[in-house]
Write a structure and sequence with these properties.
The complex is a heterodimer of chains A (138) and B (141). Chain A is an all-alpha fold. Chain A is built from 5 helices and 2 strands, in the order αααββαα. In chain A, α1 runs antiparallel to α5 and α2 packs across α5. The chains are: A mainly alpha (138), B mainly alpha (141).
Chain lengths: 138, 141
């Protein structure tokens, strides 16, 4: 009887631990597969350093009011950003916002819009992958 | 025949209402989530149907921003907005696209325009939430 109780207790503890860890594990998994998708399309290794330069740097070709991603997302990626209309944007840093970059449709939508705004063109798969690789470390 | 007819109509009406309500709630949810990403989701009854239709047809250049959406999402949102748009006695052509330019809005907020632009906490008159804190607690996307 004692042995069985211990077994049940271990099972309960493990299940609880698994349940607590699973959402963030699942999120990380979803994010990795999105990034992997961009890497595959890019056909070359991604680079967080390149992603940082791209995200924080100034671009031409887009709207003059938004020369950089930082215009709305700000240089404090763990804090709130601000849309052109004044609404708060949740943090881009994955450490502050673990849900970031886990929904492929959302990622596609915002890259589509914001690259057009900041760069005046679509971002390449490499650029998108680089940026996400970097933001995942922030 | 009569006895079957009445309940059959009642069931059909309920099914239609439920189906309609289902579609409206999909559109309502999409409107709330998609149209509150950058600004407050403005109450649909503030603009006539013609205005909403025009806005939805030009999302890739939405007041200078790219607010484009997948076609099926636009369709759901259009269904919701058309059903909940404001009833205006007459709608000019082209229809008004800015709530802030409607006569009643100017009447209510006329004095605020200059101050809003000058105050970085407000910035623009379309930033309703800066002062109307109770409106739309929707997190943006």
């Amino acid at each position: 009887m004692k042995g069985r109780l211990a077994l049940v207790r271990t099972a309960v503890v493990l299940t609880l631990a698994f349940a607590l860890v699973t959402p963030s594990v699942a999120a990380a998994g979803a994010r990795s597969s999105i990034i992997a998708g961009f890497a595959a399309k890019a056909g070359k290794p991604l680079s967080a350093a390149r992603g940082k330069a791209f995200f924080t740097g100034k671009h031409t070709g887009g709207k003059p009011e938004t020369p950089t991603c930082l215009t709305c997302h700000t240089s404090n990626l763990r804090g709130m950003g601000k849309t052109r209309a004044g609404k708060a944007i949740k943090p881009m840093a994955v450490s502050a916002n673990p849900e970031r970059f886990t929904d492929p449709k959302k990622v596609a939508k915002w890259f589509r819009r914001n690259c057009k705004t900041v760069l005046g063109r679509e971002c390449t798969a490499q650029e998108k992958g680089d940026v996400l690789t970097w933001l995942a470390t922030q | 025949m009569k006895q079957i007819f009445k309940p059959a109509i009642a069931i059909a009406l309920m099914a239609f209402a439920a189906g309609g309500a289902q579609a409206a709630s999909t559109g309502a949810k999409a409107f709330q989530s998609e149209c509150s990403a950058c600004h407050m989701a403005f109450p649909p009854n503030l603009l006539p149907k013609q205005s909403w239709d025009q806005i939805l047809a030009t999302l890739d250049n939405h007041f200078g921003e790219d607010a484009s959406l997948d076609a099926s999402v636009v369709s759901d949102i259009r269904q919701y907005l058309d059903a909940n748009a404001g009833r205006f006695r007459s709608v000019p052509n082209p229809p008004p696209l800015r709530i802030t330019e409607l006569r009643w809005f100017r009447g209510e907020h006329g004095r605020m325009f200059k101050r809003a632009k000058a105050d970085p906490k407000i910035g623009t008159m379309s930033n309703c939430l800066a002062c109307h804190r109770g409106g739309a607690t929707q997190d943006n996307d």
